[in-house]
Each structure stands twice: as structure tokens, then as C-alpha cells.
Amino acid sequence: MPLPRIVITGVGLTAPNGDNLDAFRRNLLAGVAGISRIEVRYMGLLLAGVCHYDPLKYQKKKEVRVGTRAGSISIYCAREALQDAGLDAATIVKDRTGIYIGCTEHGNVETENEIFNISKFNYDTKYWSHYHNPRTVANNAAGETSLNLGITGPAYTIGAACAAGNLGLIHAAQMLRLGEVDLALCGGVSESIHTFGIFAGFKSQNALATHDDPAKASRPFDLARNGIVVSEGGCLYTLERLEDALSRGAKIYGEIGGYCVNSDASDYVLPNPVRQAECVRKAVAHAGLQPRDIHIVNTHATATPLGDIQECEAIRAVFGEGCPDTYINNTKGFIGHCMGAAGALELAGNLPAFDDLTVHPSINVDNLDPKCALPGLVLNQPRRVPRVDAILNNSFGMLGINSTLIVRRFVP
């Protein structure tokens, strides 16, 4: 018996350059980046990607104050995704709905803030917030979303470093196919810019981007790239089995085609291009496709000197020959690195290409690094293409976690 087909019926997002898919896509095609400077505790002004959604659209002031930024982003994205899918949050079957949210770090922000606060009181722990524990548990983002929506089905997060956004969708598709749920809210979120620790960590690795112009700071593939721009963000999707989506006349963005998750098992930080290429090949095979059938490859490249080169090696190994209709782009030049949200956001930015047949570019590439030169790489200006039937999305993370997700054009 064939596995149920899983389709995307709604998208809710907030990114540094847009708070819904339409605005996000317009800015990707127009070359508009969303990077600015923010004050980071102990470190001064640093480059970051900041979201500008309205947290009070779906929450009360007290709920925002008691909860977390990750939880607030998740609630906003989940509500927006349901609305986009034409689903009523009040009438969905709550115990048959699952929430699967990928995240990178969580709890760092709250712990840093509490330590800073009690430092003003000679570190007297009686001033430590009694909200600290629910704020810092790993399932916080999904839990806050469950509370806000009254969803009583499974609700938990998936820790997969910067591969987590893809993992949220992959896991949701698996749960739908197993019949564990009938509707899934899934994707990834990040609150990274609110912790000085992540900035300090990247700076200590000489991997934190610097540039006089914030809009040009994140520059994957450029010879002058010098590191990551840390960003916050979120993107959640509604996933359904095809028969359920068709029965209610839902619009369909695309169909989950194939995926793979593997591990490098070779280094804490440095990626392994052999294992990355293996992940991509297995995802393509899982989708029943050949490399030449993939029309858009969205790269993970973060603008670190070595990381970009190694991913390009992996892509070249899979798509380097016999793929004349494969086009390659990157989204981090626009929004920086949204960590746990990166994969989900970057996929969303490419989904409209099924309709407009336009590949958004990689921007800020003034001088392409020869080691990052790839056939089909789209630089600085959008490219209209003959067809887009399959989009491949790469997301890789620390400790060697790799994920590749393929979404296909929906064909009844």
C-alpha cells in the first residue's frame, strides 16, 4: 500500500525582512536585506537580523511578559499558518493536531537574563523568576503554542542545531504518514539574537561577520565573506495528508517529495562535504528523482570561509554534471543565519517559484570565490527559468547534523 501523500497547505513566518510570505518573497526578489545593528550585552553594537512582527496580534501583554521570545514567535507563525491554510484555530480537532518545532539553542536567553538580574542584588536567588523553569525547558516553543491554541495533541521541539527547521517538517510528515495526527504545525524558530553567548561564541571562533553596511554584511560565496550574521526568526507550516486537504478544497503550495537526515560523525563544528553529499543524494533517491530533476537547490551556506567551500564541494559532487536545469541560490544574504528557523524560512522563500518560475538570487556577491563557483548559481539578480518542479533545501548544523528536504510541485 503506498504511503499517504503529504502536502503543504499553509505558511506563517516572520523574518528580518518580512512578516508574511508575500512580503518575504517580494524582498527576496527585490534584493532587500533585513540586517541592522543592535546593542548586545557586554559586547556593544553588533550586526543582527531582527524580526518586527506584532507579538500582541495573538497574545496578551502578560503572556508575552511571562513567556519567551521563541514561544511568541512560534505562536505568531502557527496562527498565521492556520489562517493561511483556511483553518479555524477554534474548530480544528485539537487532539489530532501535532506541533513539531525545530530549534537550536533554547533557555540561554532566560538564564543569562536571570543571572544579570540577580547580579544587581548580590546574587540573591530569591530574586530569581519563578517562571524560569517553564521558560527554559527544551519544549518551550511548542508548549507555549499548544497553550495558546488549546492543542492537546503531541507538542514538542526537535533539537537539531541549524538543521532543525527541515527536521520539523520531516518529522511532521512522518507522523502524518503513521496516522499519529491529522494536521501538523511544523517548522523552526530561533530567538538567538537575545543571548550574548551566541555572539561571543561565534566571535571567539572568528566567525562573526563585520561590515560597514549592515545590508551587505551577510555575503555567502563572496570572496570577502567573513562570518555569520546572527538572526532571529520563525516559519511554521500546516501539513496535511493529501486526501484531507482535497476534501476541504485547500490550496496546496507543494508536496513533500523526499528527505534525508544523516550525521558527519567527524567534528564538533567543521562540516564534512562527503557526508553532506551523501545526504543530498539519499534525499533525491528517496523522492524517486535524479539530480537533473531538481530545479532549485537552496544552499545552507552561512558565509564562513571554509563552510561555504565545503558545501559547494558537496553540491558540485551531486549536481556538477548533467544538470543544466538546476539553479542554485542562498537566502542568508537577505536575513542572516536564523539558526533553528533557517531551513524552514529558506524553503518558504523558494516555494512561490512553483508559480512565478523565478529563482531568487544570492545577494552581496561582488567577487565570487572561485572555490564556490557552481553551475547554475544565481547571483545578485532573480532569474526566470523554464520550469520549477522540485525544490531541494539543505540545512546543516553543528555536531555534524545534516538535513535535506525536497518539495515537489503538486500534481493531482
Provide structural commentary.
The structure is a single chain. By secondary structure, the protein is of the alpha/beta class. It folds into two domains: 6-247, 3-Layer(aba) Sandwich (Peroxisomal Thiolase, Chain A, domain 1); 257-408, Peroxisomal Thiolase, Chain A, domain 1 (3-Layer(aba) Sandwich), CATH 3.40.47.10. The protein is 33% helix and 22% strand. It has a ten-stranded mixed sheet with strand order 5-4-6-8-1-9-15-14-10-11, sandwiched between helices. Helix 7 packs across helix 13 (342-350). The model has no long low-confidence stretch (mean pLDDT 97).
Descriptive key words:
about 400 residues, alpha/beta, Peroxisomal Thiolase, Chain A, domain 1, 3-stranded mixed β-sheet, 14 helices
Largest sheet: 10 strands, mixed
Globular, elongated, flat, extended or rod-shaped: what is the shape?
globular
Separate helix tally:
14
CATH homologous superfamily annotation of the largest domain = Thiolase/Chalcone synthase
Helix content: 25-40%
- At the first level of CATH, the class of the largest domain is Alpha Beta
**Helices and strands: which structural class?**
alpha/beta
The oligomeric status of these chains comes to single chain
Main-sheet strand order equals 5-4-6-8-1-9-15-14-10-11
**CATH level-3 fold name of the largest domain:** Peroxisomal Thiolase, Chain A, domain 1
What share of residues are in beta strands?
15-25%
- Mean pLDDT, nearest integer? 97
For the secondary structure, the number of strands is: 15
Order of helices and strands, N to C?
EHEEHHEHHHEHEHEEHEHEHEHHHEEEE
**CATH architecture label name of the largest domain:** 3-Layer(aba) Sandwich
Number of domains: 2
Distance between the termini: 18 Å
Rg, Cα atoms, Å? 20 Å
Q: Identify low-pLDDT runs.
A: none
